[in-house]
């Protein structure tokens, strides 16, 4: 297995939602949740997708899972276009691509036991014998730190961390290639977050998993990711190796996110980048560069032309017009 092999390839992906106004205003429009995303996820890697709430991260994950129908673009898995798949082909794809949800409290059926929740994908995708399913169920339970006796309990009888372990076991039971993890620890206590993240790292090694890790927490994404993609208002504005994006960030938005990470130690100091205003509505994105109203480096023309991703360093791409990034940037991706 090599991390240079592309497992999932996204080109020009868009998801627009119609905006239907209220009875009085009658306002109509379009919410551009995902607005022309190009992205590759390499086999065996963890790609962190980071950005503010409302930037389109979760919608992108749902598009990959085929839980939403895209407005336009392409998604290729292992070299094959998936958007036209129906029936058996789509069912097979969903066995290979699984999701870990954000909230371990609402993502588990309260009327099913832990064993029923974890084993349900086997019933749907690979019936087999009852003994075979039970053996696989107990195997996965042990792998995530649960025991056979707990399989007869219901979700309300577990802690938040245990519930997320159930969700992880459910995602693993079909031996998927790719797992989309949508804010997998944001609903957990800080003391439990590290346990779940370390579990995910160990499982990635043991089961040769590929992760798309969706989060707003740069501390999490830096700890977990091989590469990081930064998303703003439906678009990717920076992409590169985790060390490069966090240590030599090129986009002003990424710089602001990095500067907001708390630094340990009373004598440690970071230069905080303060952004003006708030993220615009995806129903009314600004012209040109969508970040320009908040950008401390904006120049003439930023409000007229949309920047393309350009290569700042080998494998490190930034979408910005500003000359402060690098005098040696290459052409568009």
Number of strands: 12
Euclidean distance between termini CA atoms: 25 Å
- Order of SSEs: EEEHEEHEHHHEHEHEEHHEE
Q: What radius of gyration results from the CA coordinates?
A: 21 Å
Structural class of the helix and strand makeup? alpha/beta
Oligomer state of the chains in this structure? single chain
| Largest β-sheet summary | 8 strands, mixed
- Could you report the average pLDDT, rounded to the nearest whole number? 89
What level of helicity do the residues show?
25-40%
Structure, described:
The structure is a single chain. This protein has helices at 57-64, 87-96, 114-125, 130-143, 160-172, 190-207, 218-224, 242-247, 252-259, and strands at residues 6-20, 28-42, 46-50, 72-77, 80-81, 97-100, 178-182, 210-215, 227-232, 235-241, 309-313, 316-319. It has 333 residues and is α/β, with parallel strands linked by helices. The strands form two sheets. An eight-stranded mixed beta sheet has the order 6-7-8-3-9-10-12-11, sandwiched between helices. The longest helix is centred in the middle third of the chain and has 18 residues, at 190-207. The two termini are 25 Å apart.
């Amino acid at each position: 297995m090599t991390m240079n092999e592309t497992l999932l390839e996204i080109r020009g992906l868009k998801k627009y939602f119609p905006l239907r106004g209220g009875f009085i205003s009658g306002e109509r429009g379009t919410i551009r949740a995902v607005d022309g995303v190009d992205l590759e996820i390499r086999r065996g890697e963890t790609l962190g997708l980071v950005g503010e709430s409302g930037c389109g991260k979760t919608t992108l994950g749902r598009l990959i899972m085929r839980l939403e129908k895209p407005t336009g673009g392409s998604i290729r898995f292992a070299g094959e276009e998936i958007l036209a798949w129906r029936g058996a082909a789509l069912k097979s794809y969903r066995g290979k691509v699984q999701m870990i949800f954000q909230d371990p409290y609402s993502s588990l059926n309260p009327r099913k036991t832990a064993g029923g929740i974890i084993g349900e994908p086997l019933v749907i995708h690979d019936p087999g014998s009852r003994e075979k399913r039970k053996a696989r169920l107990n195997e996965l339970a042990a792998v995530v730190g649960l025991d056979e006796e707990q399989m007869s309990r219901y979700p309300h009888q577990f802690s938040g961390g245990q519930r997320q372990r159930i969700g992880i076991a459910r995602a693993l039971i079909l031996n998927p290639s790719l797992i989309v993890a949508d804010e997998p620890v944001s609903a957990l206590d800080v003391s439990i977050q590290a346990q779940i993240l370390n579990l995910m790292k160990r499982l990635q090694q043991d089961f040769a998993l590929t992760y798309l890790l969706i989060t707003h927490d740069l501390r999490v994404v830096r700890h977990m990711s091989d590469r990081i993609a930064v998303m703003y208002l439906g678009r990717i504005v920076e992409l590169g190796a985790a060390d490069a994006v966090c240590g030599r960030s090129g986009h002003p938005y990424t710089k602001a996110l990095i500067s907001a990470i708390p630094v340990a130690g009373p004598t440690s100091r970071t230069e905080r980048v303060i952004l003006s205003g708030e993220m615009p509505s995806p129903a009314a994105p600004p012209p040109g560069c969508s970040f320009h109203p908040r950008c401390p480096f904006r120049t003439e023309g930023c409000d007229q032309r949309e920047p393309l991703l350009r290569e700042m360093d080998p494998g490190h791409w930034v979408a910005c017009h500003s000359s402060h990034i690098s005098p040696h940037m290459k052409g568009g991706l």
